[in-house]
Amino acid sequence: MRKTGSAMRVMLRLAAAAAAVAALGAALLAASIYQREAREDWWQATRAATSDELNLLRADLQGRIDANVQLVRGLVGVIRADPAISPEEFHRIVGALIDGQVEARLVAAAPDMVVRMVHPERGNQGVIGMRLDAFRTPVAQDGIQIVGPVHLPDGGSGIVMRAPVWFGPERQLWGVVSLVLDADAFFRVTGVTAADRAIEVALSAGEDASGQRPVMVGNPAVLGADPVRAEVRVPSGTWQLAAIPAGGWPAAPSTWLVQLLFLATGLVVIGTALGVGRIIASRHRQLALIRQREAELKQLSWRLDFALNASGIGVWDVDLTTDALFWDARAKALFGRSADPRSIYGLADWSAVLHPDDRERAVIEAERTVAHGGRFDTRYRIVRPDGEVRHIRDVAAVNEGPDGSRRLVGLVWDVSEDVGRQEELDLRRAEAEAAASAKSQFLASMSHEIRTPMNGILGVLGLILDDPLPAKQRERAQIALASAEGLLAILNDILDFSKLEAAQIRLHEEAVDLRALIGQVMDLMSPNAARKGLQLGHRVAAAVPRLVRADPVRLRQILTNLLSNATKFTDRGEIAVRVDWSGTAAAGELVIEVEDTGIGIAEDQLGSIFERFTQADTSLARRAGGTGLGLAISAQLAELMGGRIRVRSVLGMGSTFRLEIPAVATTAAPQPSGERAGRGTTPPMRVLLAEDHRTNQYVILAYLRSAGHEVAVVSNGAEAVEAAAGGDFDVVLMDVQMPVMDGLAATAAIRRLPGAAATVPVVALTASAMPGDCEACLAAGMTAYLTKPITPAMLYAALHEIHLAHGGAVADDPQRRCASGG
Questions:
Q1: 103 burial level (CB within 10 Å; 0-12, 13-18, 19+)
Q2: Staple partner for 243: which of 142, 199, 524, 618, CB 3.0–4.6 Å?
Q3: What is the pTM of this model?
Q4: Does the N-terminal peptide bond of residue 789 adopt cis geometry, omega within 30 degrees of 0?
Q5: pLDDT confidence of residue 639
Q6: Helix (H, G, I), strand (E, B) or coil at 448
């Protein structure tokens, strides 16, 4: 028996050893298979990443080629449309088309005769790149040939795109259009020669006589390193891109860790087969870990209970099968229920405590959550047994147990204080909105009531000064006019600031001649400086482009404000304006500095001078005048342009204000401005003036008649509609606020008239200059918008714009109409 037991033990040990050896062999086999598959996966992933990078490069290159091919085709179309086009006009069109292209080196159009004389085929094949006779065949009617890179006569290498130009029904050959691209720039912007790419590239063209594809650019060694490839379509065939990772294909990552893991797994299996005791020890360790987790869960439960107690959040749980509702102690206290743990509740107890106005909604939301799942998240009011009403936040979700049971579990807490704070905020917000509305209404009323008489005052004073006057009367009239203009400037500052606060100012960018604009502002400010004996000068750096895209009205307003302040607070010395440019020739930052030798600003006041109604030296400010809004408006306009205004100052020695705004140079011609149109540049027009204010009638009538226009006058909107229906007028000048029928209603009625009368241009003449007034006028059908006081320049400019637009010379732009309307 003892021998039998011993033999059995030997057999069991042999079986265990055999199992161990089998497990070790399986582990080694699995490690070998894994190593082979891992290397294959790595190789595919590396090539895929290289291919993705190459495809991005190919897309960039293809896009550039297609764009330049389309450019050549467009130039061919230009010559086809006008075979007699002048070189100057052709180069102007070319300049507009290639503006901003870094690779465009040269564009030329050569007639057939010129090409044959200057570039005979023999000896010049490398430059010409084709024979003209080849284009006479039907096969190449519109073909574009690409040659290059070739050495250019003036140095460097280029890619030549050439196309024939046919015209006429008989398809006569006009000549050849050539586009020469700077090869270095072309391959740089497309990324072929970029040094920071993750791949190394070789670009090859068509096959040569030996059947090889010569490399145009890049490293020829790439072709022999098993690269990934991509093709680029060009009119004369295809280019081929080849790429490998920068520095060559990396070595495959080592898998020794994984192999070690497989080996360790095999050893674990051996250990398991040879030592059952180890399994038992592991079981004991797992039990110890379970006990540790239980202790941690107990600690976590204590922390959760502590957090719920501290926050006042109650927990509830309802069994959806039995309808039994469990409230913890916090929930019971919140709902005013008995804390006796033996108390049994149901959903009816919860529903009964809900406020009558919230009960139906809350119950429906809970039932929807139970039926469709999701989250129950709502607020409702409850009425506690003592009659107190509280606001409750309730969040719950359905929990399904492994046995199929369903429970709705939720959290509740009191949010009455949050609701009270929100109601207080809503009340304050409503009060603030009411105050803002009252302020807007007050400003609108003030604007209208002041601008209407101001139109008469400024207009009549201007008419008086147009007549010959004795010196003393002229001096008095000029003083009165200056005072009225000062009052108007204050009103405009207040309205501009209101528009900025309401985000109602929109920039209108156009081509601006900076030197001309600076000169105009300097001419405007020179008389004030001369009266104080100040030297006023300016310097524009050579790097500043002649034309940039900007809003000329707002740029002029900022510069005028800065110069006006400098003149106001400088009693001796000089004021200098410096204009500079930082960045590239195409785009950069426009920098304008206004430096004075005035009173300066104390250091503790520098942070507040851009605030509204703020002036650094109040005693001098009272003497100099002003609202204290100029710098605040200028700073906000600079921010609207994407820039800023900074200041440096030394008390008693002067200040320097620095305006910095991003800008883009342009070659487009400046927008023709009607403001420069004098009374003699617009032909006489038949004008209908609708204005109920007698003084304004008198002033505007005088302006119009002095310019040679024929004028009919009516006093309300109804009369304006009747006159427009029966008269052949070139333009209607329409006051907005009139008796019987206002200007908006009258304009809408005119637009409904039959025939040509419905299309007559209508210009708003209004004292309403608040945000939205211009848009309301345009929405009613008006053509343009002018705010009172109306000056002759404004009126003549508007009539000139109407005249140009009637002839199709000015495009309709509502933003520009509002921007220029006052």
A1: buried
A2: 199
A3: 0.41
A4: yes
A5: 87
A6: helix
